[in-house]
Amino acid sequence: MPQLNVDAASTATITLTWAELAGFAAAASVGTLLAVQFLRDIGAARYLSRSWRIVSLWPFRSTVRATAADPVLAGVELGGTTSVAAIAVGRAANIVESVEVPTEGPEETVQRLAEWLRDKHEECGGLAALGIATFGPVNVSGTVINNAQYGVLGRTPKPRWAGFALIPAFTHALSLTHPLPMRVDTDVNAPAVAEARHDGRCARRRVVVYVTVGTGVGVGAFVHGAALHGRLHPEGGHVYAPRQAGDAYPGACSLHGDCLEGMLCARALAERAGVSPAQLPQLSDEHVVWDTAAYYLAHLCVSIACLLAPERIVLGGGILKRVSLYERVWKYFDALVNGYLGETLHAAEYIVAPRYGDRAGIVGACDLAQLAYAEVARSSRRRR
User: Fold this and answer.
1) pLDDT digits (tens, 9 = 90+) for 8-37
2) Same domain, yes or no, for 26 and 135?
3) Where is the chain membrane-spanning (predicted)?
4) Crossing angle of the two packed helices 166-174 and 106-124, in degrees rounded to 10
5) 21 and 1, same structural domain?
6) CB-based burial of residue 180 (10 Å sphere; 0-12 exposed, 13-18 middle, 19+ buried)?
């Protein structure tokens, strides 16, 4: 009978072998009741809800081994509140296992994620590459080969993270014999590229923009086959919009006050409603704060539509879990555009939810790994 292994300090990490995971998959394929019984049998069910370190099981193969045809890709999503590591087989969307930890100081967070990835490296016969999707600002110019500042965080409001170098930190924490190929981008550029590359709604589109609203507000862009990089990367959350009539809220951004992030992020909405950010999901759809959120989000979408001319805008992040927000945004967007961008532009078709939902960021991170692996393969072929 499989056993449950629990870390010290009651972190309650569930450690299962690939064979045990295969058993869970087999049970799940028969039905939910059998899957639950399997968890009971291994003594895991009582830990699932209280662990801060959560193993997520998505559809996977019974045997996961690294091969040239199906490389095992590693992804890390560094978020404002929590961070996620995952492994995917063959392609970015085929995530087989993930772990979530709280985002604390940089050294502690990287160490926890790297420990888990190192275990997966040993179990599956070797990780092929690592993609890191992070909150910004972060230096993404060039590559780790030609830019010593590649992957170094800028003036982020996250305590202790400013100036932190991600590539050396993960390389050191992983302690692998052969360093992994790595690629870094923002936690909005990465899902923008993943949506454009893998979502049929966005396929063959030249410009796709991804917007996230949660702890912060971010904008990422896929332009003609790649993430948009210039002097830096898009920082659309820190532009300004006209205030909604009667809105006297001062703004929550520690750097700019009432920029769009300061008016629209989870903290801003919670303070307007007189609740904590964790209580926002408990508010009714009719609460006035959602109209305010839609107003500012629609202004951001109009600015994006006018400046970048995308063929699709994807709205994601924790705040957009409230599905009723989309219709409010569409109405404001159509009114603000007033037909100027073409008679065929209809907000309900133009502004959409992410294909991967909550997984958009980590799928984007795994897609960065897929791109890094592909680049190494191309370089190897050129040297032959």
Assistant:
1) 333 333 444 545 544 544 444 444 334 434
2) no
3) 21-39, 207-227, 293-315
4) 50
5) yes
6) buried
